[in-house]
Write a structure and sequence with these properties.
globular, 20% helix, alpha+beta, six-stranded antiparallel beta sheet
Length: 125
């Protein structure tokens, strides 16, 4: 197994609420891979600015796929961050290649954390 592989997601996703999980990640995530906003030469995402990165939690060693997006408005910009638990770097790479920005948000079946303009959504399976 390479140093970028793990067989489990971050334990933050096992916490009872999205807010607790989000707090768990604060200051504990180290970048493993930057996927940017392109895949195979085409843009898969619909944001004005944004991208995806894979992170490893310093506390547990688990992996988190993070999607950041910014939409430019006439008066204000909107910022969104999604956190997805992944079990390996290979799984994160596959998700990045398969799903555009909105698709991963709507088709993801497991737990996720959605932060909109700095506020954590209470939706958390």
């Amino acid at each position: 197994m390479s140093s970028h592989e793990n067989q489990y997601h971050c334990v933050g996703f096992d916490l009872p609420t999205a807010g607790e999980a989000y707090e768990h990640f604060h200051g504990l995530l180290d970048e493993v891979c930057d996927y940017g906003d392109m895949c195979n030469g085409k843009c898969l995402h619909t944001w004005d600015d944004g991208g995806r990165k894979l992170y490893r939690c310093r506390k547990c060693g688990g992996l988190v796929l993070v999607q950041n997006s910014e939409y430019h408005g006439l008066e204000n910009d909107d910022y969104y961050t999604d956190y997805f638990p992944v079990d390996s770097a290979q799984e994160a790479k596959q998700l990045n290649e398969l799903y555009g920005g909105f698709a991963i948000e709507t088709e993801w079946k497991g737990r996720k954390i959605f932060v909109s303009n700095g506020k954590v959504s209470p939706k958390y399976k």
